[in-house]
Amino acid sequence: MNSHPIPNIVDDADRLSALMSYAILDTPTEWGFDDIVQLACHLCQVPVSLVSLVAGDRQWFKARVGFPHCETDLDSSICAHALAQPDAVLVIPDLTVDPRTRANPLVTGEPFIRFYAGAPLVTPDGHVLGSLCVIDKVVRPGGLTVAQAENLKALARQVVTQMELRRAVTSRDIARAEEQRAYQVREALRDSQARIAAAGGDLDAVLRAVVAGAISAVPAADGGVIALLDGDHLEYRAVLGSLAAHRGQRVPLAASGAGRCARTREPYLVRDAGSDPHVDRGLAGTLGLGSAALAPILGGDGVLGVLKLQSARTDAFTQGDLDIVGLFTSAATAGLTEASARAETCEKDDYWRGLFDRLSEGFVVGEVVRDERGRVIDWTYVEVNPAWGDLLGIDPKTVVGRSVREVIPDIEEEWIDEFAQVVETGEVANFTRRIETISRWYEGRAFRLDANRFGVIFLEVTQRVEAEDRRSALLTLGDRLRDLTTTADMTRAAAEIVGRTLGATRAGFGRIEGDVEAIEIEPDWTAPGIASIAGRHRFDDYGDLRGSLRRGEPLVIDDVATDPRTRDDPGPMRAIAVGALVNMPVRERGRTVAAFIVHDVKPRTWAGEELAFLRNVADRLEVGVARVRAEELQAVLNTELVHRLKNTLTVVQSIATQTLRSVTEREPVEAFERRVLALSRAHDVLMQKSWAAARMRSVMESVLGLQADLDRFALDGPDIDISPQAALSLTLLLHELATNALKYGALSAKAGSVRIAWRTEQGTAPTLVLDWTESGGPSVTAPNGRGGFGSKLIRMGLVGTRNADLEYGHSGLRAEFRAPLTDIQIPVH
């Protein structure tokens, strides 16, 4: 057991709730987190790094390197102590003497860890969920440098950002699925209403339309029925699907699930017909009933019948399905009510007018206008319902008899051409289209009524389309940011995407100076006719704008002429074509350091969804800029590392030259110098990939080019990435083989050459096989005795496996070297 109690904050209910809201525990590995622990190891020069999330009963590692376990119990947790100091890195130089950790099982036993440093993972709401920690197996009295500690905190913030993005994507997918389901239900309702309108008062057709729509809206259903009340029984009237053969079936009110629904006037969910107390077992077997969703059809003060959807499976329906069934009972009620009243109103237009006027969707009857050649050039409004006026914001009484070009000037030609096509072909047309002059999107269906008339039923879908545009814009932005390598390119790309998505007139990004005193705006995106405002601007020159940004809150102004912060002098804003604006702050260490700006030349009300979109853009841009800065810093560090390493190798070579000056036998001295030079070339190749890997062919060409012209070597094999260790081993091996070939083998002859081929073989474990084949040279023999250092290097083979098969022949050496592929390539986490 731990000698020091686990902090009480571990069991904090709000903290645990915040952790659960990310739905991240026990999820598969992800590159974004794996890259962070790799970078943490590199920056802090440790073998182990973990993204540790502390739950109520364990700590679980979302990403890990150098640590075998994916989780531990809390008695083994050191990261739990990091929860207690959310503003600082917890550093324990010697875990064996600290009272919190000296009895920890990971300290007293395997893997015998000795040093720990953990940066807390703090959510935007201030909850500490765990830590990004680095671990060493040796005591580090000096702990971390200041730079290492700051880098570790920065990487911890990136872990939280990754978690936020992951949660946002999950929420988006759930919302998209819910929206698709709602769209499916809306389409089914619309189809039912259209069929009811076309049923001509035929009761059976009306009821079948309701059942068909309900089945379409609830995919779990394999059959459906409307059973009408008849005395103490319910009679199956409209039947579809698996119930199609049971028309006329009568079920008792007193002993059936449908009867129970009718008696209580409440929707009822039969989850398992085999155990439900209200279901007749014999009847269930006859109908093939496993589960059902039932809703009463009410009319006046009584029950008219029951709408039932059923499935042969148990538990096929959810509460949400039951709610959807209830939506269709309203259509059934309307159909039954209209049918009963039709006998009295069949000679009047009230029947159709009432149905027409009650539709929640917009409905239009139009008649095409043709020119002298019979070509459709316009259409006029013959009839519109009240919902049409609500959806377009136009009084429906003013449009009948007028053409669409008169009612909506500058309307897009598609609104005429597509309806003309419907009349000419008789084919139904589904559409989703925007009317630019009123800035609204509509979705609907057009169908022919006769040779010159058509009908249109539609809904406004502006919010849905704009939400989808914002989601697509975020995905596009993510793709663009991954491919860009400079902050200027990133900000320009983000500005253009935001400006076009929100229909703004200007968008850009700027760095905040001082205590929100001024902003330096980078090259911005502008709509046609709008001037750029790139450059430095003082906030106080435009109004009282600094307060919100200082607090880290968005600066939102719907109208510069009326907002109290700018209304006293809106002239400066109008001078730069600003009627409304949003400044979305970017924060760092509790201070506003930048802002994403969006302007509109006219006043407008910024919707909450638009502000959330801007917040997402600002967050993604912040992450992208941080990545570029980290890569730039890494490049500088790599260059400095290579510079120092080459200086070290130069010093080694100089010391050797001075030390061995008196050696009369120069060949060993020169061999040593060539080996040092070969190592230097290998380091140059590794630098091309920041010491993370090297291309195999580049390593070969670099070392062989020191020995002879490359056209004397034939290289044959796949160009793969190999680890730094493998690159150094391959360099020394090829150097010795080429040196011997120059002295004794094929390269000592003018016509001699060497073929180097490599391949992978699948067996118990994947293996890299490297063949060295000399030809056109003199006969060679094996070295006497054990040979020199070079011979030992060759016998050691690739990465020290000693799996080398050497054959000395008449035209030179033939050698085969084998090594496990896992020892050659970069490990994948």
TrEMBL record:
Signal transduction histidine kinase HWE region domain ranges (all copies): 640-719
Keyword presence, Phosphoprotein: yes
Catalytic activity: ATP + protein L-histidine = ADP + protein N-phospho-L-histidine
UniProt keyword Aminoacyl-tRNA synthetase, yes or no: no
Enzyme Commission number, as recorded: 2.7.13.3
Keyword terms: ATP-binding, Kinase, Nucleotide-binding, Phosphoprotein, Transferase
Domain GAF positions: 28-173, 202-348, 486-635
Pfam families the record matches: GAF, GAF_2, HWE_HK, PAS_4
Name by which UniProt lists this protein: Blue-light-activated histidine kinase
Source organism: Methylobacterium pseudosasicola
